[in-house]
Amino acid sequence: MLALFILIIVVWPLFRLTLEAIFPQGQLSFEPLLQAVHSPSTWRATTNSLITSFFGMLFALALGTSLAFLVALTNIRFKLLLVFCFMLPMMIPPQITALSWIQVFGPSSALLKALSLAPPLGSPNPVYSVEAIIILLGVQHAPLAFLVLRAAFRQIPRELIEAARMSGAKGHRIAFSIVLPLLTPALTAAASLTFVSALGNFGIPAMLGIPESYYVLPTLIYRRLTSFGPSIISDVAILAVLIGIIGLAVVLLQIWVNKRIESRLMSKPGAPLHIPLKKLRLPIEIAMWLVIFLILVLPLTALLATSLVPAYGVALTAQTATIDNFVEVIFRQSATLRAFTNSGLLAFMTATALAIIAIPLGYFLIWQKSRLARLLATLAEMPYALPGVVLSIAIILVFLKPIPLVNISIYGTLTIILVAYLARFLALALKPVIAGYQQLDPKLDEAAQLAGAGLARRLTQIATPLLGPVAAAGGILVFMTALNELTVSALLWSAGNETLGTLVYNLDDGGYTVLSSSLAVITVLLILVIMLLAQLLSRWLPAGVLPWQLK
Q: Distance between CA 56 and CA 209 in Å, rounded?
């Protein structure tokens, strides 16, 4: 059943996408490929994607590596709060991140007007630029680099560094001869992860690039689909495959680099390295909290200021401050209630289904060491590793026509978004459960098997009670991610089936900036409440299940 589930939601769509690129409309034809190759917009969007993804990756690595080093190896204070705040941008949808930064600068900024710092009317907003796209992609994905590198820094054994110092090695020699080689696998993994994530990001390039006619591959696909509809599906399939090829090439490059560089330890690392900052601690702490202010507090404050003014461009004062925008989006806009209902229902169903599926799949993978389960887990990683727009096109290709045998069409319904979410977030739900199984002794299952307990009884009476909290934590992560997802649903939503992510984007795109800002503020508060609730439950969870949790 697990194999059939993954075959339907993962393998079939991706295979169908590849087939469509080679055999458009069921016939071997190179015309769509030739059109894509000879189209200047294709190569312009590809170049733009490579530029923004590469430099966004570098910015994410700089931020993530710095914080990972400080949290893992030094004695800075308030680590949990610092990490929690640093992780929040990853949980906030990218379209809201972009929208909040739009409100920081420009002549219409309510915050700048309130501070009498707004530039003159007619001045361009610097956020609508390639540089801003790169910076925001870096901010959005820096937590991914942090998560990978924090664990790697903790694996650096103190005895190696002490031996090098006793041998007379200086700081730069230790850094380049010991620390950097040991960090190479983690650095390449973080670089690959952040690059692919930036490559598939839709919200930031859409909000900041489309108004300036700056297109990357995901936004080019979106523009063509919204302009021509499903009739152009064969052409955009080529672009989706192109994104997948770029992402796959980056992953293969990471594997090749790791094989070329020897970075293993001869034995299990002992006590982790610890670096007291002494007199530098306070300046470094001030610098890190300044970064948090710039990447989190400042844009969210500007977003809140815009949501409290009666019209975009009005200065926020005691006289102009109003909550009418919140009243409008909550009580008067039917689309808002519909979007909250749709997103909440989709996120809940996705989180619940995947939490349930992850327990037996993890059981076969870790305790039974099944080769089939290992293959299924690898396949489950593909939709999460590939850009979301690739998955969207693949799902459209499979479910554009009624489902065979049952003759039911799910295209243009919430069900097709649910299928895409199940494929997209299966890996996210599975990882905490795998970590939980690895911390438990499989002899529990072996003893129950010797006592005559069948598979169903062992899963329900041993695995589920022990792994239930971990699966619930994975479900919470899936819920938070799916609640405001845009990259996948941007191509799958339809009238009456809006999600929160698409509604925020469409309101801003339609010129209703104060309403989109109000809805974005509500969304951020909802995400924050869920994260705080998960943190309160963390005492009953294994260490490291929540991404901001200190192990």
A: 15
DSSP state of 498: -
Give dist(CA 117, CA 78) in Å, integer: 33
Residue 435 banded pLDDT, cuts 50, 70, 90: confident
The pLDDT tens digits for 306-351 are 888 888 888 888 888 888 888 888 888 888 888 888 988 999 999 9
Counting every residue written for the chain, the total comes to 551
Phi, psi at 408, each rounded to 5°: -115, 135
Q: For 239-273, b where at least 16 C-beta lie within 10 A, e where not — what string?
A: bbbbbbebbeebbeebeebbeeeeeeeeeeeeeeb
Question: Who's near 221: CB < 8 A, 6+ residues apart?
Answer: 236, 239, 240, 389, 393, 491
Range list of β-strands (E), 177-302:
none
Task: Say if residues 513 and 431 touch (Cβ distance below 8 Å).
Answer: no
| Euclidean distance between the first and the last CA atom of the chain, given in angstroms as a whole number | 35
- Mark 130-149 as b/e (b = at least 16 C-beta within 10 Å): bebbbbbbbbbbbbbbbbbb
Domains and CATH numbers, the chain: 1-29+323-551 (1.10.3720.10), 39-313 (1.10.3720.10)
State how far the alpha carbon of 160 is from the alpha carbons of 149, 173, 177, 266, in Å.
19, 13, 11, 11
